[in-house]
Amino acid sequence: MGTVPPYAGYIFDLDGTVYLGKQLIPGADETIATLRGRGARVMFVSNKPIDTRANYAAKLSSLGIPTGVDDVLTSPLALADYIREHHDAPACIVVGEEPVLEELRNAGCRIVTTAAEADIAVISWDRQTTYDKLEEVFQAIRAGARFYVTNPDVTCPVESGELSDAGAVVAYMEAASRRRPDHIAGKPYPALAQAAMARMGTQPPGTILIGDRLQTDLKCGKAAGCATATVLTGVSSREDVLALPEADKPDYILESVAELV
Ligand SMILES: [Mg+2]
Q1: Who's near 33: CB < 8 A, 6+ residues apart?
Q2: Domains in the chain: ranges and CATH
Q3: Considering the entire predicted model, what is its pTM?
Q4: Is the pLDDT of residue 82 over 70?
Q5: In sequence order, what are the beta bridge partners of 123?
Q6: Could you tell me how far CA 32 lies from the centroid of its own chain?
Q7: Is 182 an active-site residue?
Q8: Half-sphere exposure of 153 (CA within 13 A, CB side)
Q9: Rounded distance between C-alpha atoms, residue 261 and residue 160, angstroms
Q10: Could you say which of 13, 165, 212, 217 is catalytic?
Q11: Which helix (H) or strand (E) holds 25?
């Protein structure tokens, strides 16, 4: 677990990896500047479906990491990329907020509100949803619409504790429809890393995913065939990583992202 060799592409988790809440992880700015200076491609990824890529780009830029919207990949964009590749202007019925709708519209989707019209049911996190809306989306799934999910997280950690997230809505739809999702874009599934690589133009062996969570970041990177690094600045400790079965361990354990260069 020594020095990390250079990679063509770097996929960074955000909270716990590049920053912690509102604080930059010390050295993250210089590390990313160095990687970019070497000509490496860098992508920042998040499962969270209620913030826009523009928000993340603005936050990173304000913390000293100049970032454009196309340097950020969220689970709604990864799902939109998947839909763009597999469907032609489909009709989507959606449990999700504006950032999800925006990515879907950009991918050529038509947003519809009745089950009868829907080719695809997109399940995400929607803090304004209603029973009527959930019921219409359930009827779409029941009638055979594709069942797609932005992110499988059942909760989202916040300062005061946690909020129920998209995964909780997925559980509701699974219970009612007795169907499982046809596709899930977010970590720990590989689609998020695959979408990041497609956008960076890099391949799995030349790409490394860096994150703090073993059950999401690490699994996603491994499932996509990327090299993996676990940083100890977030939720996981060295003991947690060392307790993993050998095959599930990351390629590198780093005190922080600053050890990448
Ligand atoms: Mg994290």
Answers
A1: 65
A2: 9-47+187-260 (3.40.50.1000), 87-184 (3.40.50.1000)
A3: 0.96
A4: yes
A5: 95, 149
A6: 19
A7: no
A8: 22
A9: 35
A10: 13
A11: none
Query: How many angstroms does the Cα of residue 13 sit away from the middle of ligand 1?
Result: 5
Distance from Cα 224 to the centre of ligand 1, integer Å = 18
pLDDT band of 171, cuts 50, 70, 90: very high
Spacing, Cα 59 to ligand 1 middle (Å): 15
**pLDDT tens-digit map of 25-81:** 999 999 999 999 999 999 999 999 999 999 999 999 999 999 999 999 999 999 999
15 among known catalytic residues: yes
Q: Which residues have C-beta under 5 Å from ligand 1, the single-atom ion?
A: 13, 15-16, 212, 234
Residue whose token pair is 């993340």: 56
Q: How far is the CA of 86 from the centre of ligand 1 (A)?
A: 29
Q: Before 181, cis peptide (omega within 30)?
A: no
Q: What is the pLDDT of residues 89-142, one digit of tens each?
A: 999 999 999 999 999 999 999 999 999 999 999 999 999 999 999 999 999 999
Judge whether residue 159 has pLDDT over 90: no
Q: Is the dihedral of CA 163, 127, 71, 69 positive or negative?
A: negative
Residue 75 CA to residue 46 CA, distance in Å, equals 6
Q: Measure the CA–CA gap between 105 and 111, rounded to whole angstroms.
A: 7
What is the spatial distance between Cα 223 and Cα 217, in angstroms, rounded to a whole number?
Answer: 10
Q: What percent of the chain clears pLDDT 90, i.e. is strictly above it?
A: 98
Of the candidates 57, 1, 9, the residue with the CA atom closest to the CA atom of residue 225? 9
Ligand 1 centre distance from Cα of residue 118 (Å): 34
Contact indicator for 228, 222 with CB cutoff of 8 Å:
yes
Considering only CA atoms, which of 105, 101, 61, 56 is closest in space to residue 84? 105
